[in-house]
Specification:
single chain; 229 residues; 3-stranded parallel sheet; 9 strands
Length: 229
């Protein structure tokens, strides 16, 4: 099966936000696929901040910044990290954030058979202590899915949570570039912003991102609340 990769390869200092034709076509497909969430309602000025790959040593610093800014976020957690740091899983929830599944060891779902995939999901759910959003949510590592993994996820009752704005902070460590990608006019109503934990440059960008969004009249909510409109 052909793998669908949502990330674009960029140079470390790139600031272009123009999507490729291939990415636009892919986004249309995901936008129309039942059980797959990429961009929320555009009727109100709300956006969702999402963070992948925690918990880690930076987690409490991220949570402190979000507390200071007064905004909630959605965190997609790696199961083996959550198993090792259960106190941080509880801390996300205590501070009013949404937690969801990001696989157990960050293996691409396209590299796993159905049984191995479901085992990864189940172990991660155990580490999370379940989810409070009804149907469990999952974000495939690297955004990589194919027909087999899509069918397995949807048939198992998962909501597949993707994104519409990529901070590219996994490649680009320049704070100003990250802020630009995640601020108006590059962000619009209903957008889901993809960022990552464990990175000083992302942590440095976060207050500037939220300040820019608030200055343009946007409210930051969890991904669950964005789609619950």
């Amino acid at each position: 099966m052909r793998e669908l990769r949502l990330r674009a390869t960029i140079s470390p200092m790139a600031v272009s936000t123009t999507p490729s034709v291939r990415a636009l076509v892919k986004n249309v497909v995901f936008q129309r696929l039942p059980g797959c969430l990429r961009r929320g309602p555009t009727t109100t000025k709300r956006v969702a901040l999402t963070f992948d790959d925690g918990p880690d040593d930076y987690t409490e610093r991220y949570l402190d910044v979000l507390d200071d800014l007064g905004v909630p976020a959605t965190f997609f957690l790696i199961g083996e990290y959550a198993t090792a740091r259960p106190e941080l899983v509880r801390e996300y929830l205590r501070r009013g954030h949404q937690v969801a599944n990001h696989g157990y060891d960050h293996t691409r779902f396209t590299k796993l058979g159905r049984r191995a995939l479901l085992d990864q999901l189940a172990k991660t759910e155990d580490a999370l202590g379940g989810q409070l959003s009804g149907r469990p949510w999952v974000r495939p590592p690297h955004g990589s899915v194919d027909a087999t993994s899509l069918v397995s996820l949807l048939a198992s009752g998962y909501t597949i949570a993707l994104w519409s704005v990529d901070a590219c902070d996994y490649d680009d460590h320049d704070t100003a570039s990250i802020v630009e990608r995640c601020s108006p006019p590059n962000v619009d109503s209903g957008d889901v912003l993809l960022l990552h934990e464990g990175q000083q440059w992302t942590l440095d960008a976060l207050p500037r991102i939220v300040t820019a969004l608030h200055a343009s009249g946007y409210e930051c909510v969890t991904m669950h609340d964005l789609f619950a409109e």
